[in-house]
Design a protein that fits this description.
Blueprint lengths: L5 E6 L9 E8 L4 E7 L18 E7 L5 E7 L3 E6 L5 E6 L1 E2 L5 E2 L2 E5 L5 E3 L7 E6 L4 E6 L13 E8 L20 E3 L6 H14 L10 E6 L5 E13 L5 E10 L2 E4 L5 E6 L4 E3 L2 E3 L4 E6 L5 E5 L5 E6 L2 E6 L12 E4 L4 E5 L12 E2 L5 E5 L9 E6 L5 E6 L8 E2 L3 E4 L2 E8 L10 E7 L4 E7 L3 E6 L3 E6 L3 E6 L5 E6 L1 E2 L2 E2 L2 E7 L3 E6 L4 E5 L3
Parallel strand pairs: 29-34
Antiparallel strand pairs: 1-46, 2-3, 3-4, 4-5, 6-7, 7-10, 8-9, 10-11, 12-13, 13-14, 14-15, 16-17, 17-18, 19-20, 20-23, 21-22, 23-24, 25-26, 26-27, 27-28, 30-31, 31-32, 33-35, 34-35, 35-36, 36-37, 38-39, 39-40, 40-41, 42-43, 44-45, 45-46
């Protein structure tokens, strides 16, 4: 094993970053702690959904009120509705849950032990907990949503209020609260929105500590310029630039934010794209036109914006940048999509429909554009091939995406090394991702498998140089594989000041550096050596 990557600096490090967009926060005057709950978001957009398996973005953070240092960070299966510090014990009660969209109100009562970080789920079965409050050292008041809305049109405005008593809440074990203790009549219950008051509270705490609070989330793409500046695309920002000094030089704001970064052929600008979510307006679901723009590296000026009817995935290769439509609206499945060459404004070949699980295949350091294309017009997600796009507008099938004919593989991030491709993916299973079902593989362009590395967690990002392949996974791991053999050379859990996070984007940078964009809006710069 060689030395582990050394975290050199963190860009975009804001207070309370670990919890993403906050929804509720409470103060504890006795311990001078602050508890914050929020959401860092899904690992999915319309051009890529391969890393979201078994992921939750709901977070609960406990912070020192004076230093704003994160002491505990917990992932919650469900959104958080309420928080309450115990009057005397180092214990935080957390009410979580939501409507499942079709029948049930699901959730948990979590008890977070602040001395050890241990979390206990105390209810006997899933119930959405709308509110929690300590009546005394021994009594906890809960407001629970109804179990379901079956034959109850008022269920979404009702709650069951109960008071649970325990002599020592610090000794409560999992599922310790009995069903009979939760029995209570349904009465009207509010579901307050705490987001605005929470934002004011966190801004005030940050100001009192001499800092500024501006929430950042999901750095979808990160790149290093030839002059050492760092570029990033993230939620709410189409693209931003950081100088080698660590100062943010400029930022182009956007309603949704950028999802990809691809250097343009002129070497002085970068292409980026922003999707547009469906929004309900005037009683109808509508989507604004997508945004694909070219931005000057030196100034942040938007040089041009393309007008396309559909959202698109940027595909880079050599000196070319093309866009593959990713949102085909209500078209019939048999209608193929077309690749457009952005640099020359030429219409490319028809390559079939795109879906965010099967067809994502962003190849770093590509000598030509590569795409995944299904061979069956009626089922383009099946029997996918890795296809190269030639400059003359033709396509060439190179190799089947799955080297095991009996397995269906989802897409994932990739890199080109010499005359081979290294790519990550996952094996489809009807029961969901199985142990060892995610992989990284290196294959020559004639299809031969040089090596494969199996893992339990899907890759969020991948980059490589001639010696090492770096892979980020959605469990927060960063793995370095020997490029020649696939042997694990290094593996770390990504952390900032001891608190875990997850990388959503990676870029090998000049000078022995590795850049990682995280789900909580930060850019990590590692020093690596082979």
């Amino acid at each position: 094993m060689t030395d582990l990557p050394l975290l050199r600096r963190v860009l975009g490090d804001e207070p309370f970053a670990e919890t993403g967009l906050p929804c509720v926060a409470v103060l504890d005057g006795r311990s001078r702690r602050t508890a914050v709950a929020g959401d860092v978001g899904h690992l999915q957009w319309s051009g890529n959904g391969t890393a979201d398996s078994r992921w939750t973005g709901n977070r609960i953070g406990v912070y020192d009120r004076d230093t704003l240092r994160c002491e505990h960070l917990v992932a919650s299966r469900y959104p958080v509705n309420a928080l309450a510090f115990h009057p005397t014990l180092p214990l935080l009660a957390v009410g979580t849950g939501s409507y499942d969209g079709g029948y049930s109100f699901e959730g948990e009562l979590l008890l977070l032990h602040l001395d050890s970080g241990t979390v206990v789920s105390a209810l006997p079965h899933g119930r959405e907990v709308l509110d929690v409050a300590w009546h005394s050292e021994t009594e906890l008041r809960l407001v629970l949503a109804p179990c379901d809305d079956w034959e109850n049109p008022d269920a979404h405005a009702q709650g069951h209020t109960v008071v649970i008593a325990r002599d020592s809440w610090g000794a409560v074990e999992p599922r310790n609260i009995g069903p009979e203790e939760l029995a209570a009549p349904a009465r009207p219950a509010e579901r307050p929105d705490h987001r605005e008051e929470t934002r004011r509270l966190l801004a005030g705490l940050a100001e009192a500590a001499g800092r500024r609070w501006a929430p950042r989330r999901r750095v979808w793409a990160v790149e290093s310029g030839a002059d050492g500046r760092v570029l990033a695309a993230l939620d709410g920002v189409l693209v931003e630039s950081w100088l080698p000094s660590g100062e943010r030089e400029w930022a182009v704001e956007d309603e949704e934010g950028g999802r990809q970064l691809v250097f343009a052929a002129d070497g002085t600008s970068v292409w980026t794209n922003a999707e547009r979510r469906m929004r309900r307006r005037e009683g109808r679901w509508q989507r604004d036109a997508p945004r694909i723009a070219r931005v000057a590296l030196g100034t942040g000026e938007v040089l041009e914006t393309l007008s396309l009817e559909e959202s698109g995935v940027l595909v880079a290769g050599g000196s070319r940048v093309v866009v593959r439509p990713s949102d085909l609206g209500n078209r019939r499945s048999a209608v193929p999509s077309t690749v457009f060459d952005l640099d020359h404004r030429a219409e490319g070949p028809e390559v079939g429909r795109f879906d965010l699980f099967n067809h994502p295949f962003p190849v770093r350091h590509a000598s030509r554009p590569y795409v995944l294309v299904g061979t069956r017009q009626d089922a383009p997600h099946r029997d996918k091939w890795i296809v190269a796009l030639a400059a003359d507008g033709t396509t060439r099938r190179l190799l089947p995406h799955s080297w095991a004919p009996q397995e269906h593989h989802f897409g994932g991030p990739a890199a080109e090394i010499g005359r081979s491709l290294v790519y990550a993916g996952a094996v489809h299973d009807g029961a969901g991702l199985q142990p060892g079902g995610a992989y990284v593989v290196r294959r020559s362009l004639d299809g031969e498998v040089a090596w494969q590395h199996r893992t339990d967690h899907p890759a969020t990002a991948l980059d490589a140089d001639e010696d090492m392949v770096y892979v980020a996974h959605n469990n927060g791991d960063l793995t370095a594989l020997d490029a020649a053999t696939g042997t694990v050379r290094r593996r770390i859990g990504i952390e900032v000041e001891g608190t875990p996070t997850t990388a959503l984007s990676l870029a090998v940078a000049p000078g022995g550096r590795l850049l990682a964009g995280t789900v909580d809006g930060r850019i990590l710069e590692y020093v690596v050596s082979n």
